[in-house]
Amino acid sequence: METGSIYALAALGIIIIYRTSYTTNFAQGAVAMFNTFVVTFLFNKFGLPLWLAVIGGILSAILMGFLIDVLILRHTKNVSPVAKQIITLGLIMIVLGLAPIFFGVDPLRLPRLIESGDLSLLGASISYNGLFNIALGLAIMLLMFYILQKTKWGLAIRTTASNEYVARLMGVPTKNVTMAAWGVAGVLGVIAGVMTAPMTSVTLNLMDEVQITALVACVLGGFQTFHGPVIGAYIMGIVRNLLLFYVSSVWGGQILYILILVFIVFRPYGLIGKKIVKKV
Amino acid sequence: MTKEKNILKKYPILGLILFGAVLALVPPLAEAGVLKNGYITTIGGTLIYAIAALGLNILLGWSGLISLGTAGFMGLASYISAYLTIDLELPFEAAFILAVLIPTLLGILVGLVSLKIEGLYLAIATLAVSEVLRKTFEELVPFTGGFSGKSADYPTLLGVFELDRTTTYYFIVAILVIVMILTYNMMNGKLGRALNAMRGSEAAAQAMGVNLLTHRLIAFALATVFASIAGVLYVHFIKFSYPSTWILKLSLDFLAIIIIGGLRSIYGTVLGAFIVFAVPDLFLKQIPYFENLSYVLNGLLIIVVIIFYPNGLVGIGYDIKKFFRKLRKGGKKDE
Questions:
Q1: Of A79, A93, A98, the CB nearest to B306
Q2: Interval B41-49 mean pLDDT
Q3: Which domains, and CATH codes, for chain B?
Q4: Cα angle at B15 between B12 and B16, to 5 degrees?
Q5: ipTM above 0.85?
Q6: Is the full-model pTM beyond 0.90?
Q7: Closest alpha carbon to B190 in B161, B226, B214
Q8: Which of A62, A77, A84, B196 has the fewest CB atoms found within 10 Å of its own CB?
Q9: What is the nearest CA distance from A85 to chain B, expressed in angstroms?
Q10: Contact status of A216 with chain B (Cβ, < 8 Å)
């Protein structure tokens, strides 16, 4: 469940950008990595308390999301979808190149949000931090869905997602919506990053696996809805841990990917997705 | 001048061979001291990457199918070739054929999957395949040597000619030229037209009698064949293969190559490979602080090229000429 939460946060970030900017954001993981570095840096070098450092990371994530949208994505209205995806690949390169310049190449350590304590649950032990991550993940999910479904902002995002042109005609500030979506995606990314960081060390490829799993989760859940990828991410998190625990600690990951590939062949548009009819 | 151009236009293959001859000048120049000796390795590596990128260009440029799995297939071929030549002591030719055949079968399998899924679903599916392969490289220690990697020797052709670094470089140039000629002929023939039609509109292509199944499989097979050839050459030229080489970053580099160089352009692919791999190594590393920035630069270049130059840098010469002609015309009007 804990890893599921991380995957779900990352997947939600990807899907929000996909729905508003019509591009798969391959750079989601890289941007999250960068901002996790910001958090770690604030924590280690300036001695800020962790919660303050996390807020700093969130601010930098929002800023970075805005910058990406204003400087780059806004100028790509006439670019084909594949080219847009490749632009986000270019973003990965920029972020990966900049990170060592700012933060050095040494791996850094980031402690857990809640340092110690274990809870025994149905024979399996789980740390308070893990529980906190699960709870936080679920809370953020619920909050996001509440905003998407019930508020004016959510309505604006949903209209932009379904038809940007008409949304603009109706007076929805689509530019701000896209910008906000990039900001929100950045925040979701950095939270997922801070959750991942204590499990390993903070390095350049901190988020690689999370990123790939989140993308696959989006495929599993289907790109057409907001909740599909989140469900897909939780399924992947749980199945992955079960496979690693019961089947093989070495091959579990690969088996999961292969299972999902087979699944995609039979349900090409995901669990919930619908087929998009292409017109000639 | 114009006469020469006409000859090149009439026999484009001659141009490709000439191009190969120019590339083959690198080792003598290095021996003469004009170029640094280390350049042979860098440029040879770049040409290897260009071969794999040509395969991806067939897939993405001509047939419009995106793949993020190039690095995985290239790595698989390199490991197979290293394993067969070093551990089983098979001759280089046999290893070459097997190392191209096995990944290609896998590539065709992915091609079968591609019939079902589209666009970004396909990109992510190939990404997952590549990821499975990479993890396998890490874990399957008896076959791949795990994290410590696998080494191989320079190839021995026909069991007699033992190549060294310079002759292997010539070998790579020869293979690159052959691959370029093959690509040129295929893409300007019936197959190229069929793939083009498929990219434009699948329904229309089908109506014109293009079999989607066979052509998608052919596109994927060609892309994997080229990637595998590149993988085999890589392991026998650089002599090492680590799991950390065959990551997503490398697949992204291939994408960068064909985007920067130009979709559906053979020379553009080689140009892109030089910009992405050789320029950072040869020039930017001489300038302090630029080592890390080269990566940033590539990323920026991709974005700028896509926004302002959707046809790739290979068209830039033509555009500059047009610009000057315009200037001259404008100047004349003023007079």
A1: A79
A2: 84
A3: 12-334 (1.10.3470)
A4: 95
A5: no
A6: no
A7: B214
A8: A77
A9: 9
A10: yes
